Amino acid sequence: MLWPDSPEPDPGWTSSDDSGRPEQTIASEWREPDTSINVAGESEASDTRASAEEAESAQPEISLDRLQHALANIGIDEDGNLVLDEIALASLREAFRGLENAGPDTLDELKRYVEAGLAGETGVQAASILGDYINYRKALTAAEADWAELEDLAPRDKLERAIELRRQHMDPLTASQLFAGEDAHQRYLIAMEEVRTNPDLDGEQRQQALSRLREDLHSGALLVDSEGTDAVEKLRSERQSWESMGLSDKTQDYLEQQTLGLVAARDLTGTDARDWQNRYDQFSQQRDTILSAGLSEDEKARQVESLMDTYFTAEEVEAASNWLPEYLKAELSD
């Protein structure tokens, strides 16, 4: 199950199961940088009282201890990559609270500080994600002020604008891993309100629509924007077909995640929607042929995975494989 059965799930929901959390975190790998950082309150440019006061008046005070504390619980996997899960997103939000008024020069100094505090590519990645996230949040604040002037801007349109803005300021795959679960919650809440306020539905139709929405939330269908394709909607009937073929739950889960990943890749890579749909239709037909063949289940899975390279670009295949953080992939399979 992806989310609790609450009728209005909290967009800030986080998994209570820490068994899969990495042992390494930013806190455990942090080494105090052998460098001085020129930010207000932490400046090495303190030759005179006047210069220190001038620096403090030009920008808000930034606490390096607070920044370290905010980022401390972000996990690091065995390859040295940050674990971009719900804890990482909460950590970035906490960091933003102390940095939302930081100017470009200050932010650059703080990125260098983070990069110096973590070894190798881990530091580079952490600094980049921190800077991109802060810039996105600043842009979002400005955009939301403009959106408030638009009386006819529906919540669904506002969400899609926020996602598009996010992809302009952050690496699309990074943004997807960080925000996929939250975006699914928002889609659910928006759709639920649309159903509740739809005057064309009677009581029974409304209950059926709400029940279907809950199924979509738990199945992961709301993790992607499926507008313009019926690939996600068809998963309902395809799952029944896979069951009739005798495919294991593990293989069925893989096939569902493959479909969701390819739909996500369509948006993350900016692929032409019509071209993608044509290729996906051919892929789906060939996949059905493989699944119906008299092969072992392992061989079917191998051939289906290889089939992606035939119909999709390397960029699309990478996005389809990496658009979700590992904890959500595991939740989808439960």
From TrEMBL:
Localisation: Cell inner membrane
Pfam family, one: Lipase_chap
Coiled-coil regions, chain positions: none
Chief location bin: membrane
Lineage: Bacteria, Pseudomonadati, Pseudomonadota, Gammaproteobacteria, Pseudomonadales
Membrane protein topology class: Single-pass membrane protein
Manganese recorded as keyword: no
Function: May be involved in the folding of the extracellular lipase during its passage through the periplasm.
Protein name: Lipase chaperone
UniProt entry tagged with the keyword Secreted: no
